[in-house]
Design brief:
Layout lengths: L12 H6 L5 H13 L1 H12 L10 E2 L7 E2 L4 E2 L1 H14 L3 E6 L5 E5 H17 L7 E5 L4 H13 L2 E4 L6 H11 L3 E5 L1 E4 L2 E4 L1 H9 L8 E5 L13 E3 H5 L11 E2 L3 E7 L7 E6 L1 H14 L7 E4 L6 H13 L3 E5 L10 H9 L3 E4 L1 H13 L15 E5 L5 H11 L6 E4 L33 E4 L12 E5 L9 E2 L3 H8 L8 E9 L6 E6 L3 E4 L2 E4 H9 L5 E11 L3 E10 L6 H18 L8 E4 L13 H9 L14 H7 L3
Bound molecules: adenosine-5'-monophosphate-propyl ester.
C-alpha cells in the first residue's frame, strides 16, 4: 500500500502563467468540454494535433464494443507526423535527438537528418520486401538507430514489436513466434555501465530455438564492432541495406486503426500479452499528453529515461516528443555509471528542462547521494529544470519530497503519471500549471479520461473507500486487442461483471475531500519490480521448467525499499529440502535459470525451499500466507482450511 502525505504544493505562478493548460479552471473546462460532447472533444484535438492525409468523419465507433475504433475512416502516417511535418514547418535544423552514449560521447541529429535516416531504413526494409502489416521485431539498446528503426516501420506501415534488450533468448523467441515477424532489427552489442553485452548472439540463439521460421532477414546495426556470426542469406548489416538508399521515402498512408505496434507485457497467466496499439488514436494521446502533462514547449530539452523496450519509451521518446517537434535526450547507459551522479551531470550538461524517470531510480540515487556528496544533486547545476515526472510504480512521499527538494530545487512540479502499456499514455496525472500536488497521489484524471473506482459488480464506491480502478469510457490510445487473441482481450480487460468498463488491474482509493486518486497496487498476480511488470505465473513457469530440480513453485511479491516490490519464490524440489550452502547453491542455479528463461529482471531476490507449499484441502496454494511469510510477518490470517499447517514454520525459516 502506498501512502499519501497531506502537504499540498500549488503550481508555481510563472508556470501557471505560461502553461498549455493554465490554472485549475482551465483543467476543469477541458474536463467539462469532454463530458459535454465526448466525440467532439477528441475530434477537435485529433484535428489540432495530427495531420491527416484523409480527414476522418467519425470519431468513436462503438458498434463492436469492446473493440472500439477511433477516427476509423481517416488515414495518416505516424512517421510523417513526427518528422516530415516538422521539417515542413521550418524545424528541419532543430535538434530532434541529443544522444549520449554510455561512455559520454554525444551525437545530435536534427529533424532533417532524422527524417533522412528513417527514410533510408524504410527504403531498405521495403527493398527486402517488408510491407504494410508485416511485423518487425526490434531488439536493440537505446540509440538513435533504435528510434529510427521504429519510425521506419511506422513509415512503411510495418508493425514493430520492440523487445527490451534485457530479455533472454527464450523470451525473444516467444515474442518473435507470437508476432510471426518477418525481420529482426538488432545490433552487434549493447554497451551499459562500461560493459559490452551481446545482442546479435542472443538473436542467433533465439532463432536457433525454433518456431521463428517466419523470419527472413536479420538487420544488424554496428555498435561495438565485436565479432558476431552472420548467417548467409538471412543476416545483413543495416549499413549495407540502408546507407545507399535514397533519403526520401513516400510514407504508407494507413487507416487510423492500422496497428502501429505490439508490445508484450505480463498478465496474470504465464504467457505475456501482445498489446496492440493503433496509429491515429495512439499518436493523438502520445502527443497530447506530452503537450499537457509535460507542458512541452519549443525551447525545452526533454528527457525521459525509460528504455524504448517499454511503453514509456514508445510514447515519451519515439512518438510524443517528436510529434510535437521537441528536442529530447536519448541515453544509452545506466544511472550509476561512471557514478551515481550521471543523471544530474547530464541534466547540467544538456540543460534539461523536463525530466521523467522512475521512483526506483530516484530511490537508489537517494541512497548513493546520501552516502557521497559528489553524486548529490546539490553538486550540480540543475537550474535548467522546470518540470519533473515519475512513472511506473507508486512514488512514496519521502522519495517524492527528496526529488522535489534536491532535484527540482523546490520549484519544479512533479507529475506522478499513472498509466499502463495498455493505455498508451497518461491516464491519471497532474498537469504542471494546473493541478495542486499531494506527494504520493497521481491526483486527477487527464482531461477526457474517465477513471473511476468501483466494487466487484461495477458500482461506484464513495471517496475514501478503496476499490477497483476502471475506465468508464473508451479513449483514443487504448489497447485494441491482444495480438491474435480477441477472447483473452475481452476476458482480461472487459469482464462481464464490470458493466463494460475497462479493468486496469490496479486497486485505488480517492481522497474524501479532494477526490485525488492514490494507486494502492495490483489486484491480480502481477508484480511491479523496479517499475517492470512481472507476472508471478511467468516466473513460476520458468522455475518449474527446470524439470530436473523443481517439482513445484509459487512466486509472490514483498515490499522492497528500493525496487518497490521484490520477487520471492517458494520452491519444492524433486530432492530432499536443502539447507545451508546447498540451499544457496541451488538457489543460484534456479536464479540463473530464470534469468535464462525470461531475463535478469525476473530473477527472484529470495528463494525458499519447503517440503511442500501451503495448500487448501482442495489443493489450491494459499498465496496470501506466502505473502505474509515473504514479508516476515506473523501469520494472523485464518489457517483453518490449510491442509498442512506445519509447512508455515518451515517456510518461515531462512534457509
Ligand atoms: O500497477 C500500475 C503501475 O504499473 C502498471 C503498469 O505497468 P506497465 O504496463 O509496465 O507500464 C508502466 C509504465 C506506464 C500499472 O498497472 N504504475 C504505473 N504508473 C504508476 C503505477 N503505479 C502507481 N503510480 C504510478 N504513477
Amino acid at each position: 500500500m502506498s501512502e499519501t502525505s497531506h502537504t499540498i504544493y500549488t503550481p508555481p505562478a510563472d508556470l501557471v502563467a505560461t502553461a498549455h493548460v493554465s490554472g485549475f479552471a482551465a483543467y476543469e473546462a477541458l474536463c467539462k468540454e469532454a463530458e459535454a460532447d465526448y466525440g467532439a472533444y477528441w475530434g477537435r484535438l485529433a484535428r489540432e494535433l495530427i495531420s491527416w492525409k484523409k480527414p476522418f468523419t467519425q470519431t468513436l465507433d462503438d458498434s463492436q464494443a469492446p473493440f472500439f475504433k477511433w477516427f476509423a475512416d481517416g488515414t495518416l502516417n505516424v512517421s510523417y507526423n513526427c518528422l516530415d511535418r516538422n521539417v515542413e514547418r521550418g524545424l528541419g535544423n532543430k535538434t530532434a535527438i541529443i544522444f549520449e552514449a554510455d561512455g559520454g560521447e554525444v551525437t545530435k541529429v536534427s529533424y532533417s537528418q532524422l527524417l533522412a535516416k528513417v527514410c533510408q531504413i524504410a527504403n531498405g526494409l521495403r527493398s527486402l520486401g517488408v510491407k504494410k502489416g508485416d511485423r518487425v521485431v526490434i531488439y536493440i539498446a537505446m540509440s538513435i538507430d533504435g528510434v529510427a528503426a521504429m519510425q521506419a516501420c511506422a513509415r512503411i506501415g510495418a508493425i514493430h514489436s520492440v523487445v527490451f534488450g534485457g530479455f533472454s533468448a527464450q523470451s525473444l523467441r516467444d515474442r518473435i513466434n507470437d508476432t510471426g515477424a518477418v525481420a529482426v532489427i538488432t545490433a552487434d552489442c549493447q554497451v551499459r555501465g562500461g560493459k559490452q553485452l551481446p545482442l546479435k548472439a542472443i538473436v542467433d540463439e533465439a532463432l536457433a530455438l525454433g518456431g521463428c521460421e517466419s523470419i527472413q532477414n536479420v538487420l544488424v546495426v554496428k555498435r561495438g564492432g565485436n565479432a558476431i556470426s552472420m548467417t548467409e542469406g538471412r543476416d545483413k548489416w543495416m549499413a549495407d541495406v540502408a546507407d545507399a538508399q535514397p533519403t526520401t521515402c513516400e510514407p504508407e498512408w494507413v487507416e487510423a486503426e492500422h496497428p502501429l505496434f505490439l508490445l508484450y507485457t505480463s498478465g496474470s497467466t504465464g504467457k505475456p500479452k501482445g498489446v496492440q496499439h493503433s496509429s491515429g488514436g495512439y499518436l493523438l494521446h502520445a502527443a497530447l499528453t506530452t503537450k499537457w502533462t509535460f507542458d512541452l514547449k519549443a525551447d525545452d530539452v526533454f528527457w525521459c529515461t525509460a528504455d524504448i523496450g517499454w511503453v514509456t519509451g514508445h510514447s515519451y521518446i519515439t512518438y510524443g516528443p517528436l510529434a510535437l517537434g521537441g528536442t529530447e535526450i536519448v541515453f544509452e547507459g545506466v544511472p550509476t555509471y561512471p557514478d551515481a551522479g550521471r543523471f544530474w551531470k547530464m541534466i547540467q550538461d544538456h540543460k534539461v528542462s523536463i525530466f521523467y524517470t522512475a521512483p526506483t531510480a530516484i530511490r537508489s540515487l537517494i541512497k548513493a547521494a546520501e552516502a557521497n556528496d559528489a553524486v548529490h544533486p546539490k553538486s550540480y547545476d540543475l537550474s535548467s529544470l522546470r518540470i519533473l515526472g515519475s512513472v511506473g510504480e507508486p512514488i512514496n512521499p519521502a522519495a517524492w519530497e527528496w526529488y522535489h527538494k534536491h532535484v527540482g530545487g523546490g520549484r519544479c512540479p512533479i507529475v506522478d503519471t499513472f498509466w499502463q502499456t495498455e493505455t498508451g499514455g497518461h491516464m491519471i496525472t497532474p498537469l504542471p500549471g494546473a493541478t495542486p500536488l499531494v506527494p504520493g497521489s497521481c491526483t486527477l484524471p487527464f482531461p477526457g479520461i474517465t477513471t473511476a473506482i468501483v466494487d466487484e459488480t461495477g458500482n461506484d464506491v464513495p471517496n475514501g473507500q478503496g476499490g477497483i480502478l476502471v475506465v468508464k469510457k473508451p479513449w483514443p490510445s487504448m489497447i485494441r486487442t491482444i495480438w491474435g487473441d480477441n477472447e483473452r482481450f475481452v476476458k482480461s480487460y472487459y469482464p462481464a461483471e464490470l458493466k463494460g468498463y475497462y479493468l486496469a488491474g490496479d486497486g485505488a482509493i480517492r481522497d474524501e475531500k479532494t477526490g485525488y486518486f492514490t494507486i494502492t497496487g495490483r489486484i491480480d498476480d502481477v508484480l511491479n519490480v523496479s517499475g517492470h511488470r512481472m507476472g508471478t505465473m511467468e516466473i513460476e513457469s520458468a522455475l518449474v521448467s527446470h524439470t530436473e530440480l523443481v517439482a513445484e513453485a509459487a512466486v509472490v511479491g514483498r515490499p522492497d525499499d528500493t525496487t518497490g516490490e521484490a520477487i520471492c519464490a517458494f520452491v519444492v524440489l524433486k530432492r530432499p529440502r536443502p539447507t545451508g550452502d546447498e540451499a544457496k547453491a541451488i538457489a543460484k542455479i534456479l536464479r540463473d535459470h530464470v534469468g535464462k528463461e525470461i531475463g535478469p529482471i525476473a530473477k527472484p531476490k529470495d528463494i525458499r525451499f519447503g517440503d511442500n507449499l501451503p495448500k487448501t484441502r482442495s489443493g489450491k496454494i494459499m498465496r496470501r500466507l506466502l505473502r505474509s511469510i515473504a514479508k516476515g510477518e506473523a501469520i494472523t490470517q485464518d489457517t483453518s482450511t490449510l491442509e498442512n499447517p506445519a509447512i508455515l514454520d518451515q517456510l518461515s525459516e531462512n534457509n
